């Protein structure tokens, strides 16, 4: 069966520091991968998605970036965090033309 | 205009009763799909149910059913026989088009189930 992992689970970082969040999927190949952000009490905002290695689509211009160095690995990064980057970051995957997405446990980021 | 609207910020229901969570959507694409996800306090998003725009029957998954009214552009989630573990945020989402597309989420409804 497929599983999706995210780490770290929680993170507290000062403004201006770099960020690296990692997401990996097991039990499938060539998944579609997604990064979402959820502000407190809000819905999900799609940040990036990827349909293959090295293929990244950005939905929202910001100081974040994403990379997919391996088939089942998706990384969210920032060179300098802003206070507004605080939130709950969720990674998700889907397979081929199947529409439902399956989510990881999330990373709670607090920028101080 | 919002593509997904969930008008109920919060809902209360007693254990063992049924509850309906509202969702309306806006799209001009004839091919689309509607999803419901559950987010408990742990934060993980759990896929519950999916309805395609061309599906003739309402989707059902155990205690979850989707009341799909195409002309009214509504896709309400019905939870039968509520349980304490159903207390969570519930999000409606939509994908548009017949090819690959991403999901657009509503702002969610918080459901609280009381004993």
Tell the overall outline of chain A. Answer: globular
| Spatial gap, N to C terminus of chain B | 38 Å
Question: Tally the helices of chain A: what do you get?
Answer: 0
Strand content of chain B: over 45%
- Kindly state the mean pLDDT of chain B as a whole number? 94
Query: What is the alpha-carbon Rg of chain A in Å?
Result: 13 Å
Oligomer: heterodimer
User: What value does the Rg of chain B take, in angstroms?
Assistant: 14 Å
In terms of structural class, how would the helical and strand content of chain B be classed? mainly beta
Describe the 3D structure.
The complex is a heterodimer of chains A (112) and B (115). The mean pLDDT of chain A is 92. Chain A contains no helices and eleven strands. In chain A, a hairpin with a 7-residue loop joins β9 (87-94) and β10. In chain A, strands 2, 4, 5, 6, 9, 10 and 11 form a seven-stranded mixed beta sheet that branches. Chain A is mainly β and 112 residues long. Chain A is globular. Chain B is mainly beta. Chain B has strands spanning 4-5, 10-14, 19-21, 24-25, 32-39, 46-52, 60-61, 64-69, 74-79, 88-96, 104-105, 109-114. In chain B, the strands form three sheets. In chain B, strands 2, 5, 6, 10, 11 and 12 form a six-stranded mixed beta sheet that branches. Chain B has a four-stranded antiparallel beta sheet with strand order 3-9-8-7, with no helix packed on it. Chain B is globular and about 45 Å long. The mean pLDDT of chain B is 94.
